[in-house]
Automatic annotation (TrEMBL):
It catalyses: (R)-pantoate + NADP(+) = 2-dehydropantoate + NADPH + H(+). One of its GO terms (cellular component) is cytoplasm. This is 2-dehydropantoate 2-reductase. Catalyzes the NADPH-dependent reduction of ketopantoate into pantoic acid. Gene3D superfamilies: N-(1-d-carboxylethyl)-l-norvaline Dehydrogenase, domain 2, NAD(P)-binding Rossmann-like Domain. The keyword NADP applies. Keywords: NADP, Oxidoreductase, Pantothenate biosynthesis. Pathway: Cofactor biosynthesis; (R)-pantothenate biosynthesis; (R)-pantoate from 3-methyl-2-oxobutanoate: step 2/2. Its EC number is 1.1.1.169. One of its GO terms (molecular function) is 2-dehydropantoate 2-reductase activity. Residues 181-304 form the Ketopantoate reductase C-terminal domain.
Length: 314
């Protein structure tokens, strides 16, 4: 296996998990973030990674602020929230070489368009992941259960660069599959998040609590159907049955889980509603598809965002 120079932009739970696993596999990894307590903890004791099999400290990993590095990576993994993509990339634009591959595994839509402002489309890789991760505290991440990655170049070309990135991810046991139909997977995940994230954010319920009423489960499935209809009308062969099965499974199995959008609401942080429900509504309008439930939830979460922003400003 050939090793890669890898930078991870956005070293929260997911970024730290991926960076830690890749460093364990022998790659040269730099975590880039502005969470100073997290960076300090990793610098002092390494990254504490709690997996199903054991807990270990990964010490062969760098954790620094954007302005503190000038090392150009072969691969940049992007894990910032979609609304921060452009600002985050602006802060590390000096690291983006002519051959740097940028892989986004972020939630929502519009990430590829933002990345294209910084690197050629031929250098952009896009995908989805089902790996779970939680930030336990500064310098400490947990991940329980298996996950996988589906990814492809944004322009659809299977290049040697795509193969090399997949090989690096698989060397870390991250189960990466090169998938020509990756946009279907992306839209299916958008549908899943548009349903569960927004409903939980508005109601303050955990995912499993949506099963308390048949109406709430039905609402989630209706939102998913609207989003998949937009995808299909846009020429993407996303599968509603796959998405609906995943939603029902989550409601039945994800006991006590607070989706990221609900976590943001509770912490009075701005949510990713524009990259998920808001982006779907925008595409739907452009192709004249009606998405009333998705749009209503977007408006309600925007109101919560505005309320939280007003409270923080006082």
């Amino acid at each position: 296996m050939s090793t890669m120079e890898i930078a991870v932009l956005g070293a929260g739970a997911m970024g730290s998990l991926f960076g830690g696993r890749l460093a364990e596999a022998g790659h040269s990894v730099t975590l880039i973030d502005i969470n100073q307590p997290h960076l300090d903890a990793i610098g002092a004791k390494g990254l504490r990674l709690e997996m199903d099999d054991d807990t270990r400290a990964i010490t062969n990993i760098n954790a620094i602020r954007p302005e503190a590095t000038d090392k150009r990576p072969d691969l940049l993994l992007l894990f910032t929230k979609s609304m921060h993509t452009r600002a985050a990339l602006s802060g590390i634009e000096h690291l983006l070489g002519e051959t740097t591959a940028v892989l986004t595994l972020q939630n929502g839509l519009g990430n590829v368009e933002a990345i294209r402002d910084f690197v050629p489309l031929s250098n952009v890789l896009v995908g989805v992941t089902t790996w779970p991760a939680d930030l336990v505290g500064p310098g400490s991440v947990s991940s329980h259960g298996e996950g996988k990655i589906r990814m492809m170049s944004a322009d659809g070309e299977r290049t040697s660069q795509v193969n090399a990135v997949a090989e690096a991810l698989n060397s870390a046991g991250l189960n990466c599959q090169i998938d020509d139909n990756v946009w279907a997977a992306i839209w299916e995940k958008v549908a899943f998040n548009a349903a569960l994230n927004s409903i939980c954010a508005v109601t303050g319920t955990t995912v499993d609590q949506l099963g308390l009423l048949e109406d709430s489960k039905s609402l989630a499935l209706t939102v998913a159907a609207e989003v998949i209809a937009v995808a299909n009308a846009s020429g993407v062969s996303a599968d509603l049955s796959v998405c609906s099965t995943n939603i029902v499974h989550a409601i039945e199995q994800h006991k006590g889980h607070k989706p990221s959008m609900l976590q943001d609401v509770l912490a009075r942080r701005k949510t990713e509603i524009e990259g998920i429900n808001g982006a779907v509504v925008e595409v739907a309008r452009s192709i004249n598809v009606s998405v009333p439930h998705t749009e209503t939830l977007a408006k309600l979460v925007r109101l919560i965002d505005a309320r939280n922003a007003s409270a923080v400003a006082k």
